[in-house]
Amino acid sequence: MAKVIVVTSGKGGVGKTTTSAAFAAGLALRGHKTVVIDFDVGLRNLDLVMGCERRVVFDFINVINGDANLNQALIKDKRNDNLYIFPTSQTRDKDALKREGVERVLEELKQQFDYIVCDSPAGIEHGAITALYFADSAVIVTNPEVSSVRDSDRIIGILSSRSRRAERNEPPVDIHLLLTRYDPGRVSRGEMLTVEDVGEILSIPLLGVIPESESVLRASNTGTPVVFDEESAAGRAYLDAVARFLGEQREMRFVKPEKRSLFRVLFGRA
Amino acid sequence: MGVLNFLFPPRRKTAVIAKERLKIVLAHERAGRTAPDFLPKMQKELIDVVGRYVEIDDDMIRVTLGKSGETSLLEINIEIDGAKPKKSPPPIANTPSAAASVKSG
Q: Which of A47, A162, A189, B69 is most buried by a 10 A CB count?
């Protein structure tokens, strides 16, 4: 049975699109047929992060409106056969994302895919609510920083009251915490909330900790999901998170300050 | 060490401050999320009633919905310490006549 996963946060700029790209690519690398959908109507960016911006012909709104069929709009990833990208529209009409239309498209995608990853826009407006409404699972992307934690709490409240599962009194959305931009050095100096602090405050299970890493910007510069960078600590942390999502036990890495050798300080890559 | 701490008091770790602030604000917001819709209106009416007798500010009355074990607890805190009594409390419409009719009946 296909699973709909929403990647959401409330706050902007915490790494939803980076996470959506990395998570979807990670699921594809594990052999699951996966599509990643951009729900941020008007501010399309998933295509750039996935490196397929020049291959966009039809988009989500075209399919909802019946101007194109699903297979015309889906973009097959060139690096992994299991991975597809479904770009959004650049229209300024934010309400173009009609709930019934989205439901129809998701039902059609469920026939073809194992996992449907929904990249939510920031905020708690129409687009964000539509992105989370049909979710079976949610990945809450949070930075160890007060405004991000507060907004995550808000979006968790919305997931448990306004999602379709909540409205229908079905088993609740399976909610996971993904802590991103974590800096173990600053945490050890008492300058940043610890992973335990954030877990305790939000009281949802921890899926993973992604360390602050230069490789994330390098990945978006080149339009490559960071999991394809085998050197990257962030990439490996995302693959661990995907493995945990699939039910594996993995020890948390990258949560302690790294001892850097002189060689790494001089020539190292993050 | 004690002398050093006295001379140069260690700065409180900012992460600890962040955690404390978050816990307080989220406890407040979570309570507000599950509260029934009538709460703000009731709070306003309570302020009106109390305000007929003493001069109070809006922030001197707090209505919170909490939980004590299994029971939901509606807590109303009115701070009248230092509030000036009004000179002549205005009569509340209908009440005197209603009381009179009970007596006569």
A: A47
